[in-house]
Amino acid sequence: MFHFTAHRKSGGADVSDKWNPNVPFHGTQEEWWEHFHRIEEGKFTPWEEAKREFEIWKENFLASRLK
After folding, report:
1. Residues in CB range of 12: below 8 A, 6 or more apart
2. pLDDT tens per residue, range 42-54
Protein backbone atom coordinates (compact mmCIF):
# COMPACT_ATOMS: atom_id res chain seq x y z
CA MET A 1 0.00 0.00 0.00
CA PHE A 2 1.26 3.46 -0.82
CA HIS A 3 2.07 6.15 1.67
CA PHE A 4 0.92 9.68 0.84
CA THR A 5 3.11 11.84 3.04
CA ALA A 6 6.39 13.60 2.37
CA HIS A 7 8.30 11.36 4.79
CA ARG A 8 8.05 7.61 4.86
CA LYS A 9 7.15 6.13 8.24
CA SER A 10 8.56 2.82 9.36
CA GLY A 11 6.08 -0.02 9.52
CA GLY A 12 4.32 0.65 6.20
CA ALA A 13 1.64 3.00 5.02
CA ASP A 14 -1.03 4.55 7.17
CA VAL A 15 -4.42 4.16 5.50
CA SER A 16 -5.69 7.29 7.25
CA ASP A 17 -3.39 9.44 5.08
CA LYS A 18 -5.18 11.53 2.47
CA TRP A 19 -3.82 12.03 -1.02
CA ASN A 20 -2.35 15.47 -1.57
CA PRO A 21 -1.17 16.37 -5.09
CA ASN A 22 1.44 18.73 -3.61
CA VAL A 23 3.19 15.98 -1.62
CA PRO A 24 5.60 13.52 -3.27
CA PHE A 25 4.25 10.02 -3.84
CA HIS A 26 6.63 7.54 -2.20
CA GLY A 27 6.54 3.79 -2.58
CA THR A 28 8.89 0.86 -2.93
CA GLN A 29 9.23 -0.95 -6.24
CA GLU A 30 7.12 -3.78 -4.82
CA GLU A 31 4.38 -1.30 -3.80
CA TRP A 32 4.36 0.19 -7.31
CA TRP A 33 4.03 -3.25 -8.92
CA GLU A 34 1.22 -4.16 -6.52
CA HIS A 35 -0.53 -0.89 -7.39
CA PHE A 36 -0.21 -1.52 -11.14
CA HIS A 37 -1.51 -5.07 -10.79
CA ARG A 38 -4.57 -3.84 -8.86
CA ILE A 39 -5.28 -1.37 -11.68
CA GLU A 40 -4.91 -4.10 -14.31
CA GLU A 41 -7.36 -6.34 -12.45
CA GLY A 42 -10.03 -3.64 -12.58
CA LYS A 43 -12.74 -3.16 -15.19
CA PHE A 44 -11.46 -2.48 -18.69
CA THR A 45 -13.56 -0.15 -20.84
CA PRO A 46 -12.83 -0.09 -24.57
CA TRP A 47 -12.08 3.35 -26.02
CA GLU A 48 -15.24 3.46 -28.15
CA GLU A 49 -17.49 2.64 -25.19
CA ALA A 50 -15.72 5.15 -22.92
CA LYS A 51 -16.03 7.88 -25.55
CA ARG A 52 -19.74 7.10 -26.08
CA GLU A 53 -20.41 7.19 -22.32
CA PHE A 54 -18.54 10.49 -22.03
CA GLU A 55 -20.53 12.05 -24.87
CA ILE A 56 -23.81 10.98 -23.22
CA TRP A 57 -22.62 12.39 -19.89
CA LYS A 58 -21.48 15.63 -21.55
CA GLU A 59 -24.84 16.14 -23.30
CA ASN A 60 -26.74 15.54 -20.05
CA PHE A 61 -24.41 17.80 -18.10
CA LEU A 62 -24.64 20.67 -20.58
CA ALA A 63 -28.42 20.29 -20.83
CA SER A 64 -28.71 20.47 -17.04
CA ARG A 65 -26.56 23.62 -16.98
CA LEU A 66 -28.95 25.38 -19.38
CA LYS A 67 -32.05 24.79 -17.24
Report:
1. 1, 3
2. 888 899 999 999 9
Q: Is the separation of the CB atoms in 23 and 4 below 8 Å?
A: yes
| Alpha carbons 60 and 56: distance in angstroms, whole number | 6
The answer to whether the pTM exceeds 0.70 is no
Where exactly are the structural domains of the chain? 1-67
In sequence order, the 6+-apart residues with CB closer than 8 A to the CB of 26 are: 2, 3, 5, 8
Q: Are 25 and 5 in contact (CB under 8 A)?
A: no
CB 27 within 8 A of CB 5: no
Q: Which residues pair with 26 in a beta bridge?
A: 3
Beta bridge partners of 15: none
